[in-house]
Amino acid sequence: MKVGMTVNGVGEQVDVEPRRTLADALREDLALTGTHLGCEHGVCGACTVLVDGQPVRACLMFAVQAEGASVVTVEGLAGVDGTLHPLQRAFSEHHGLQCGFCTSGMLMSALHLLRTEPNPGRERVREELAGNLCRCTGYAGIIDAVVAAAAELGTTLREP
Amino acid sequence: MSEPTTSSAGTSVRRKEDARLLTGNGRYVSDLTLPRMRHVAFLRSPLGHARIREVDTSRARAMPGVDAVVTAATPGFAGVALRAQSALPSYVETDQPVLAGEKARFSGEAVAAVVARDRYVAEDALELIDVEYDELPVTVCAWAPPQHPVHPQAPDNVLLERTFTAGDVDAAFDRADVVVERDLTTNRHGGNPIECRAGVARWEAADRRLTFWSGTQVPHIVRTVLAELLDLPESNVRVIAPDVGGGFGVKAVVYPEDLALCLLARQLPGVAVKWVEDRAEHLLAATHARDHRYRLRAGFTADGRLLALDADVTCNVGAYSVYPWTAGIEPLMAGGLLTGPYRLDDYRATVRGVATNTAPSGPYRGVARPASVFAMETIMDTAARRLGISTVDIRDRNLIRPEDVPYRMPSKLVDDSGQYGQCLARALELFGLDEFRAEQQRRRVARQPPIGMGVACYNELTGLGRAASAGPRMPFRTGHDACTVRVNPDGRVVVFSGVTSQGQGLETTVAQIVADGLGVGYDDVEVRFGDTTESLWGFGAFSSRQAVIGGGAANLAATAVKDKVLELAAGLLEAEPSDLALHDGEVSVAGQREPRLSLAEIARVAYLETHRLPDGIDPGLDATRFYDPIRGAFAAGAQVATVEIDRSTGQLRILAWVCVEDAGNVIHPKIVEGQIAGAIAQGIGGALYEHLVYDDAGNLSTGTLLDYLMPTSAEVPDLVIDHICEPAANPLGVRGVGEGGTLAPNAVLAGAVADALGIEIDDLPVTPAAVWKGLT
Amino acid sequence: MKPGRFEYLRAAGVAEAVRALVEAGGDGKLLAGGQSLVPLLSMRLSRPAVVVDINRIPDLAGIDGTDGTAPSVLRVGAMTRHAALVEQRSHPLLAEAARWIGHAAIRSRGTLGGSLAHADPAAELPAVAVATGAVAHVTGPDGERTVAADGLFDGPLMTALQEYEVLTAVDLPVPSRWGFAELARRHGDFALVLAVVAEVDGRWRIAVGGVAGTPQRLACAEALLNGDGATPAEVAEAAATEVRPGSDVHAPARYRQAITGELVRRALARADAEVMS
Question: Which residue from B24, B670, B681 is facing A104, i.e. has the nearest CB?
């Protein structure tokens, strides 16, 4: 089936079997391998992307369901000139990543959190990121990073 | 340009890895796409133990989009097996086949493989393979009577047994005022990096070259065994480990799937074959760990001195002896390190590795010690309660002290740290012991939810040299690593290191070491590793060895290059090398403020203007050095935590957690603390949540992440981490920090429950149901 | 872990979805939020020939009775996402229960109808439906019908919905007082046990999840609660004796049974204890 969607602001078309997950379409058909697969059954959160602004497990949505949708992946987070998004900068400054494999999903979940709750406290960040497993950091650096990014972004969170 | 600092070590410079990993530009094996790539899926045994009568692949083979279907009977596969070797007298050698042939020994063992257009089609084809099994009796528990031998070579399923002895244990027990006994079991769990295993293999028939991209921690070990089993010169095998999404030991094993991919590639010349393990496969067939039973008896004096320890340790090693570490990896580590940071002369421990119809056990962060530390610390807590002394005091009275170092442990390992008391004291200071006791008492009086405190001390053996070498008398010793430091003609530095990184930030740490050792800016150093054609022999990443051994080699190589730079500069400047210094990429003469030569100018001479080379100096500007610390560096550690318990549900809440470790000199503080924090989080996971459970028929009951529960950000508390910095006797004075954090949480959490409620935890994990049961 | 082949149909309306199910002859599956179905497809535990996507059917999502008046019954479209249930203010119990479901990326896709039709015995929304006496609206080849929540759940992952029926909306009575309590191994996990108490039309109802194949009404505990003079502790004790949970890797039966009492006690405490005194 032919599927048209906007990915990181660019119109894309893929021709996929209905069973192809959105995650596989992004990774295999559009070569956007920043979206990672860690469990393929909706638990680990590594494949989290934004679909029409909402966080979605890309392994639990079929590409055909994204027809007409606007998808934002980790590749869409930095500016076109390569300037890192404040969240990305904060992750680096606060050691919010080690192997980097959970990072894409973690960033997308954090982005959604800060858009809906611009100033979450540490405990809220802890709760809201619980849908993204990280095996390396013990989460400390991630929580530090999101809290710091929230402080920097204040209420002026920009669309990526 | 260079960062302005002259010394990089000790500062948390920006990680070199971050720019690509944060933007979705990481290069993981699972991201790799090559021309003519095909995808592999494995058919796995649904039974724990069964003879395989027949595998009919004809329907799968006929499916459109399928390139190949192979089984153990396929030419090229038949008879190929991994055989982990050890010179230990009791060790029974067994084979691990690439694909199960005669029988399947655990649920999840690969029986056949399909190569197809994509993974979807490959999995479609799996459904068309018909296998006839004859079920055999299943053994899943290593301390239950064996039902049917897993391997005919070991009728009792015991693959290895060894007794450690020191002194005269029976006489020591006679002198003891009290003897305490505990029977303990620990829970099987595993590494579960967020990126599962992955591999891509390609065979170039014309020049008989194999390239294997693999998310491995040990590319050189993989190369050696591939070359051996495929009968190729090592130089014809290239193993590349690019970005790897976590390892934790699980990826330090050579697996049958690795071999299967390479054999498949050889059958399909020019076609790259790719397999990305899915999570169900990982839970079923990547190595498990920590399924142990400890039967302990310990004798103490009335004032709490440990006199004697007698232990019987059984480790469930699963269906196969993993390559190259063998079935001995856990039992031998348990027996060798059981006494931990405590002074003891009289010791006896019999350890055994028992095969069962479960996934093989292998190295997992902390190897056996999260279990053995739990056992030892439980004995200390039990004795303290029996003797009416505090759990802190009993430890203080027995810890190896600075004046005892070098301390020869009863297992003959030599402890060079001795900072245990210091770690414990600092941890208790940060924890606030008096305030805790006051609050505990206040809650008791006020009948509020009880709190308890757990404490654990441990010694992490890191950076093992040839005398302490990881693994049980294997045909090779993992003591050394190599590093090449090369200054390019533009004065920039490239480093080829034998270590690998699965998130530990070694690109950054090694660059810091070389920048400091050579005298250049951090930004001018680029580090490459993980590719066997680029770096010299290196064992890779395991046993908290990268900073100690890889870092040591990097330091030696950088220093050697610096020596040559100064010698060359001395010739050009007609000065003595000893009067010159190299800082931030500039050579200056003692007593002069302005630098005289840049490294780029010197490098240009070394490579391009060799007519200017001083007499006796060869062209080029690089050096290769090997480093082996011979023994290793013990890292002392102590952790203390408070838990609150909900009496009505048995639920635990962690209120505070403190960890103090002796990391020696700290190169990158944030990376070091990140290692410790990540390790503690995995330790907490193992203590409270993670449990791989088999039913009696040999089926894994926890085969998805809905049932295998890893801690999330909501479960891991804020951690207070501090360091004691006692430099170790290696070039950088560092001690490994990768694993220590995992060692304590089992003991800390079980101890905290005992402190809060007086309930003795015998079996892990500490679930709410177990605590509740203890309360009723 | 990739799904087997299926035919995909994006239904434009309920009638088309029903027709597609009929044409699939029992081999069709409705795709709502996909948070439970897609893992089953990926693990190939579910192998439908046809997947009928009802995400784009207009009017299946949305909440009636949110016009500012306080409705006594809230009609919620089957495709209303959990995130919207959390956001709405008309049915605080529904919002609280939905907050406990998984994580943000689950709540943004998962739906009320999908949760009821999937019928996981440890899920939040089926228990809320039972506790409040909800009524499901269903459309099938023979037209529309309603199914009371008490009769909706037949067993684990089994409902009274017929093969070709589409759950279109749910009427959820808004309780005058309510309490919700849940215990899970980790934040966001399916419940070990959860308890919902709701006062609807002056009568208390109690439903617990995680202790049986379906959300379970607790008749004895309800009788005590609706009678005179029972203390919360007595109601909780009755609740615990009334359930016969099973064991699994997360908790043995005895534990589940014991904490059922505790969770009912907590739910009652939240509901407002004055009724008991």
Answer: B24
Q: Taking CB atoms and an 8 Å cutoff, what residues of chain A touch C109?
A: 54, 56-57, 60-61
Measure the CA–CA gap between A84 and A88, rounded to whole angstroms: 6
Can the peptide bond before residue B629 be classed as cis, meaning omega within 30 degrees of 0?
no
Helix (H) or strand (E) holding B527: strand B525-529
Q: Which helix (H) or strand (E) holds C135?
A: strand C135-140
User: Does residue B520 contact residue B451 with C-beta atoms inside 8 Å?
Assistant: no
| Closest approach of B352 to chain A, Cα-based (Å) | 30
Alpha-carbon distance values, B698 to B157, B691, B701, C1, C167 (Å): 16, 15, 9, 22, 40
pTM over 0.90: yes
Separation between Cα atoms, residue A150 and residue A125, nearest integer Å? 10
pLDDT of C275 > 50? The answer is no
Residues B373, B375, B379, B382, CA torsion sign: positive
CA distance A52 to chain B (A): 20
Convert the pLDDT of each residue in B155-197 to its tens digit.
999 999 999 999 999 999 999 999 999 999 999 999 999 999 9
Q: What φ, ψ does residue C169 adopt, rounded to 5°?
A: -160, 165
Label residue B295 exposed, middle or buried (CB < 10 Å: 0-12, 13-18, 19+): middle
pLDDT given for residue C229 in this prediction? 86
Q: Read off the amino acid at residue B549.
A: I
Q: Rounded to whole angstroms, what are the CA distances from B667 to A98, B158, B522? A: 16, 43, 13
Contact (CB, 8 A) for C75 and C170? yes
Where do the structural domains in chain A lie, given as residue ranges? 2-76, 86-153
Query: Could you tell me the fold of the domain covering A86-153?
Result: DNA polymerase; domain 1 (1.10.150)
Q: Which residues of B touch A130 (CB under 8 A)?
A: 712-715
Per the document, the length of chain C is 277
What is the SS3 assignment for B6? coil
Query: CB distance from C58 to chain A under 8 Å?
Result: no
Neighboring chain A residues of C102 at a CB cutoff of 8 Å: 131
Identical fold between A2-76 and A86-153: no
Residue from B479, B489, B492, B462 nearest B661 by CA: B462
Q: Which residues contact B746 (CB under 8 A, 6 or more apart)?
A: B186, B370, B371, B373, B374, B683, B686, B687, B764
Is B304 exposed, middle or buried (CB count within 10 Å of its CB: 0-12, 13-18, 19+)? buried
Cα–Cα dist B651/B642, whole Å: 14
**Helix B391-398 to helix B369-387 angle, to the nearest 10 degrees?**
110
Task: State residue B35 phi and psi, 5-degree precision.
Answer: -60, 145
Give the separation between CA B692 and CA B701, rounded to whole angstroms: 7
Mean pLDDT for chain B? Answer: 96
d(CA B378, CA B181) in angstroms, rounded, equals 10
Question: What number is the ipTM of this complex?
Answer: 0.96
Q: Which of B109, B32, B26, B40 is nearest to B72 (CA)?
A: B109
Taking only the tens place, the pLDDT of each residue in A58-101 is 999 999 999 999 999 999 999 989 899 999 999 999 999 999 99
CA distance C43 to chain B (A): 9
Provide block-wise average pLDDT over 10 residues at a time, chain B (776 residues): 60 96 97 97 98 98 98 94 95 98 97 98 98 98 95 97 98 98 98 98 97 97 97 97 97 98 97 98 98 98 98 98 97 97 98 98 97 98 98 98 96 93 98 98 97 97 86 86 96 95 96 97 96 87 91 97 97 95 95 92 97 95 95 94 97 98 96 98 98 98 97 98 95 94 98 96 97 94
Domain A2-76 has CATH 3.40.50.1980: no
